[in-house]
C-alpha cells in the first residue's frame, strides 16, 4: 500500500457544523484549512500497489462526499514559491534559488508551474518528487506520495465532468417542471419569476409572466 495525499477545494462544508466535522475526522484521514476564504480538504488515501491511484481516489472522493455531505469542486495544486519550498525542506531560500536556476544539484529542479506577477510558483507535488532524489538532504519519511501533474489533470477533469453533468440534469428537470406548469398548473401550483429565478409558490393558479 502507498499512502497518497490529495487536496480538494470543496463547498457545502462548514467547520462550524459539528456533524460534518465529526463525520470527516471519524471516517477519513483528513485535514481542513481555510485559504483565501476557500475551504481545502486534504485527504489521505491508501492505494494498493497493483491499483490505479486515480481510480482509488475517485472512489474515496465519492465516499467522502456521501458521508460528510460536502462537494469536491476541484483539485487544489498546493502551489508554493521559493520561500515556502525552503520552509518545507528546511533549507534557505538562497539554496532553493540555486537549485531552481540550475546552479546547484543536477539541474533537474522542476520547471515552475506558473509565473503570476513575475513570481515563480511550483506544485508541491512536483517539488516533493524531486526532493526524494536528495534523501540525504531531506527527511521525507512522513511525506506521502502525490499525484503527478497528469494524474491531477485527470482527477480534475473527472470533477468537472460531474459538475457539468449535474448542471445539465438540473436544467433538464427545470424544463420539465416548466412544461408541466403550463400544461398542468393545478398539479404544480404557480410558477413565479422573481429576480430571474423560478420559484414554486404552491398556489393552484395559472403561471403569469
Could you please describe the fold and organization of this structure?
With 209 residues, the protein is an alpha+beta fold. The chain has three domains: 2-76, Alpha-Beta Plaits (2-Layer Sandwich), CATH 3.30.70; 79-134; 162-200, no CATH class. Helices cover 43% and strands 21% of the residues. The chain is built from seven helices and eight strands; from the N terminus they run βαββαββααβαααββ. Strands 2-3-1-4 form a four-stranded antiparallel sheet. α2 crosses α6 (149-183) and α3 (82-89) packs across α4. Residues 187-209 have low confidence and may be disordered.
What do the pLDDT scores average to?
A: 82
Helix and strand composition category: alpha+beta
Shape descriptor: globular
Multimeric state: single chain
Which CATH top level class of the largest domain fits?
Answer: Alpha Beta
Query: Percent of residues in helical segments?
Result: 40-55%
Give the uncertain stretches in residue-range form: 187-209
Q: Secondary-structure map with pairings?
A:
Blueprint: E1 2-11, H1 18-27, E2 29-35, E3 38-47, H2 53-68, E4 71-75, E5 79-80, H3 82-89, H4 93-101, E6 122-123, H5 124-131, H6 149-183, H7 185-188, E7 191-194, E8 197-200
Antiparallel strand pairs: 1-3, 1-4, 2-3, 5-6, 7-8
Structure characteristics:
single chain, 209 residues, alpha+beta, Alpha-Beta Plaits, 3 domains, four-stranded antiparallel β-sheet, two-stranded antiparallel sheet, 7 helices, 43% helix, globular, disordered C terminus
Question: What's the short story on this structure?
Answer:
The chain has 209 residues and is of the alpha+beta class. It has seven helices and eight strands. The protein has three domains: 75 residues, Alpha-Beta Plaits (2-Layer Sandwich), CATH 3.30.70; 56 residues; 39 residues, no CATH class.
Amino acid at each position: 500500500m502507498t499512502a497518497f495525499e490529495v487536496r480538494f477545494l470543496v463547498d457545502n462544508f462548514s467547520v462550524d457544523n459539528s456533524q460534518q466535522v465529526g463525520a470527516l475526522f471519524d471516517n477519513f484521514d483528513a485535514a481542513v484549512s481555510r485559504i483565501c476564504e476557500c475551504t481545502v480538504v486534504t485527504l489521505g488515501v491508501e492505494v494498493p500497489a497493483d491499483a490505479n491511484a486515480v481510480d482509488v481516489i475517485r472512489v474515496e472522493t465519492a465516499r467522502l462526499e456521501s458521508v460528510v455531505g460536502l462537494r469536491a469542486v476541484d483539485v487544489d495544486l498546493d502551489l508554493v514559491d521559493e520561500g515556502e519550498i525552503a520552509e518545507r525542506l528546511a533549507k534557505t531560500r538562497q539554496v532553493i534559488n540555486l537549485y531552481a536556476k540550475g546552479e546547484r544539484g543536477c539541474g533537474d529542479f522542476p520547471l515552475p508551474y506558473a509565473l503570476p506577477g513575475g513570481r515563480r510558483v511550483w506544485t508541491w507535488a512536483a517539488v516533493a518528487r524531486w526532493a526524494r532524489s536528495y534523501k540525504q538532504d531531506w527527511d521525507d519519511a512522513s511525506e506521502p506520495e502525490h499525484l503527478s501533474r497528469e494524474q491531477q489533470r485527470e482527477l480534475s477533469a473527472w470533477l468537472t465532468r460531474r459538475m457539468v453533468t449535474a448542471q445539465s440534469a438540473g436544467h433538464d428537470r427545470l424544463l420539465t417542471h416548466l412544461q408541466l406548469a403550463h400544461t398542468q398548473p393545478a398539479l404544480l401550483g404557480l410558477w413565479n419569476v422573481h429576480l430571474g429565478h423560478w420559484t414554486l409558490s404552491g398556489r393552484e393558479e395559472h403561471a403569469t409572466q
